[in-house]
Design goal:
Elements: E1 2-8, E2 11-17, E3 25-29, H1 35-45, E4 51-56, H2 60-63, H3 83-99, E5 109-114, H4 116-124, E6 133-137, H5 146-152, E7 161-167, H6 181-194, E8 199-204, H7 212-225
Helix pairs in contact: 1-7
């Protein structure tokens, strides 16, 4: 395995080159750099045959939120709606520079994310055709206005697969907005299916914080085997 590290302002990008030949390339949006944890989870579930890119160091609530909203979870939320500014950096700088380090173009690209990163991954499918697979593990489908936006807008990407999951205890949160995450995640998967996208919804045991790497990897494994 070869590891290359790049920096884009405050963002840290790590390429884990696992396969030398043409292979799928998974970009994973992470709160902290956790490539080794993801690869260990991959070994546990037996998925292989892809290259991995982790992206961390983001100003999480600001750069991954599609539009500004007020306080939802806590007084420190700061959902600034800066995803439209971060996306061109991802597509125009991060992706080209990472893929110049590979011996051949990727077989296909997947954008994966956990929590607000999962919402960002699904949102990108309405903005760009660069990623043909999307993965949202315990994604923030509760985000105010999100499901309505998705129903009113067309996909920009010709998606070949989508994986969305949520923890079974996430809908029992005290916060009334967060309680909608289960039904809205299921509805988002159904909407994608209605639009011809092979989409899987999975309910995982536990709350929002139970084993994020494994939840992401379960999605990677499904997308790899449902090519």
């Amino acid at each position: 395995m070869e590891i290359k590290e790049l920096h884009f302002a405050h963002r840290r990008v790590c390429l884990y080159r696992l396969v030398d030949s043409e292979a799928p390339l998974v970009y994973s949006i992470d709160y902290h750099e956790n490539g080794q944890l993801l690869l260990e989870a991959c070994r546990q579930v037996g998925c292989s045959g892809f290259n991995l890119v982790t992206i961390s160091g983001l100003r999480w609530n600001q750069e991954l939120s599609p539009w500004p909203v007020g306080t939802v979870v806590s007084k420190d939320d700061n959902f600034a709606g800066e995803a439209p500014q971060w996306l061109p950096v991802l597509t125009g700088e991060v992706v080209p520079q990472v893929e110049r380090l590979l011996p051949s173009p990727p077989q296909w690209r997947c954008l994966a994310g956990y929590s607000l990163g999962g919402l960002f991954a699904v949102w990108t499918a309405f903005q760009t055709n660069l990623f043909t697979r999307i993965l949202s593990a315990s994604g923030s489908m509760w985000y105010p206005g999100w499901l309505e936006y998705a129903r009113e807008h067309q996909l920009a990407a010709d998606l070949s697969g989508a994986y969305l999951s949520v923890g079974e205890q996430e809908s029992t949160a005290r916060n009334a907005v967060l309680q909608t995450v289960g039904e809205r995640t299921r509805a988002m998967a159904a909407l994608l299916n209605e639009r011809g996208v092979p989409a899987k919804f999975e309910l995982n045991p536990g709350n929002h914080f139970k084993n994020p790497p494994l939840r992401v990897v379960k999605g990677i494994n499904w997308l790899l085997h449902n090519d």
